[in-house]
Amino acid sequence: MTDRKKIVFVIPNMEGGGAERTVSNLLKCLDRDKGELYLVLYEKKVKYDIPADVRFFSLNVSPSPNIFIKIYNYILRIFKISTILRDIKPDTVISFLTDANISVILAKLLAFSKSRLVISERNSISSVYNAGYQKIKKFLIRFLYGYADRIITVSEDISGELMGYGIAKEKITVIHNMVDCRNIAVLSEEEVFETDVFNQGLPVIITVGSLTKQKNHVLLLKAFKAVLNYIDARLLILGEGPLLGELTEQSKMLGLEDKIVFMGFQKNPFKYIARSDVFVLASLWEGFPNVMLEAFACGTPVICVDCGNICRRLIKDEVNGFIVPGHDDKLLAASVVMLLNNRGSSKALTAGALAAAAEYDIKKGISRYEKVIF
What we know:
By secondary structure, the chain is α/β, with parallel strands linked by helices. The chain folds into 2 domains: 5-174, Rossmann fold (3-Layer(aba) Sandwich); 183-358, Rossmann fold, CATH 3.40.50.2000. It has helices at 18-29, 67-88, 98-111, 125-128, 135-144, 156-164, 181-187, 217-227, 244-253, 270-275, 290-297, 309-314, 329-340, 343-358, 362-373, and strands at residues 5-11, 35-41, 55-58, 92-96, 116-121, 150-153, 172-174, 204-208, 234-238, 260-264, 278-281, 302-305, 321-324. β12, α12 and β13 form a beta-alpha-beta unit. The longest helix is centred in the N-terminal third of the chain and has 22 residues, at 67-88.
């Protein structure tokens, strides 16, 4: 069709995470009669599916801990993205995550591109960018985000933060994260061969998320230690990240190494979540936790440490899960023990979780994205 629009997606990588899964879902589900899709990554790290009809670009610029190389790479990315924009001349460019948002805004200005620019901010600015050079991003957000034609946020809280940085309310659209309930139901039925943790006749506690400070796995390890004083169980941790070594060492110090399984990144986390007895989210903060919706869609009861308004919005206490007030390992442990010892409550929460997931089904989310993108 001659009136199909060219849409360019930009994200650092497709290695794992909520934003990356959202991009994967969009690439699979957006109406091809309306658009021709392109994907630009900083580096070719891909663990989520990319449809065969999506034209793919890798900038081949990897991150570096060296501050001088980091600055050079940042500039190099901007120039490479600007070249791609000049070559493709897209109708719309949509970027995900703060780093990509800033790079794309500067690249668009450098290329004198007339493309419509949509950026997606998915995390709490005040919580993330408070240390060291990260504070520079607060300044760049304030100075550059106004150049975007539309800003998508995943929660009202993040929208409020952006308005506090001087971004016009009219530019901001809230699109909550989405979950593909039908696909998750299918994938959750796949057999588990990678671990025998579900064959031991013991309750299984699971968490899924990058091994970073934000996800606060240390709190969960301490709580799990307390849980074992009352009931024998196993803890399954899915995800990878810079704190793997530290968390592995912490589990040994607590005497938990034989009761915790670190599974790394799993392309299909749903078969593990669906077989687990309780899903725990212990994060210090969240923008809009995709993984909680995915746990709901698996019918797994959720216990969430109170990490902001968004968690209180998603969790209806004692209907689809429990909220633990404050980051207290003893209170978290008590909630887990209570749920594991009360199967009747667990079954009721399963029904509530499935109902909650249906509210965020992917069809609704795709429709809202299409209105913004096309």
